[in-house]
Specification:
There is one protein chain. By secondary structure, the chain is mainly alpha-helical. 72% of the residues lie in helices and 9% in strands. The protein is built from four helices and three strands. Strands 2-1-3 form a three-stranded mixed β-sheet. Helix 1 runs antiparallel to helix 3. The two termini are 19 Å apart. 7% of the residues are buried.
């Protein structure tokens, strides 16, 4: 089966259909692990923020007066960077996982087809996997 880049309309790879399924499944697994790592970062940030807030609230009033605290807009920007942007990244990765599932399903249903047109980002993921030596299990 020939893999064609949707963007450049060029033949990039030639694989057996079973091998394409294995490669796409491996890319999907990597994306799922990436989602888990990002979720873990969000959880760690929120735990750190809660711990700091609990520490600040436990201080006596006089110490609170002398303890510096970042302005609320700094906290909002920090939340935006550490949570909101990461959540949007997770959504993008989930869309790619859904697309990978669709392609895997297509290849499994029609293993005899000669040509498979893949989006450029998936072709790039396959190239990275091959360069890292991950395509051979």
């Amino acid at each position: 089966m020939v893999v064609v880049d949707e963007f450049y309309h060029a033949i990039i790879f030639s694989f057996a259909s079973e091998e394409i399924v294995k490669i796409l499944q491996k890319i999907k697994d990597q994306k799922e692990n990436e989602v888990l790592l990002i979720k873990d970062k969000i959880i760690k940030y929120e735990e750190k923020r809660r711990t700091h807030e609990a520490w600040y609230q436990s201080l006596p009033a006089i110490k609170k007066f002398f303890t510096g605290r970042p302005p609320s807009h700094h906290q909002a920007v920090e939340y935006l960077v550490n949570v909101k942007q990461r959540l949007s990244t997770i959504e993008e990765i989930k869309k790619r996982i859904i697309e990978l599932d669709r392609i895997i399903d297509l290849v499994e249903k029609e293993p005899e087809q000669e040509q498979l047109i893949l989006p450029h980002d998936i072709v790039e993921d396959i190239k990275q996997l091959k360069e890292s030596g991950g395509s051979h299990q």
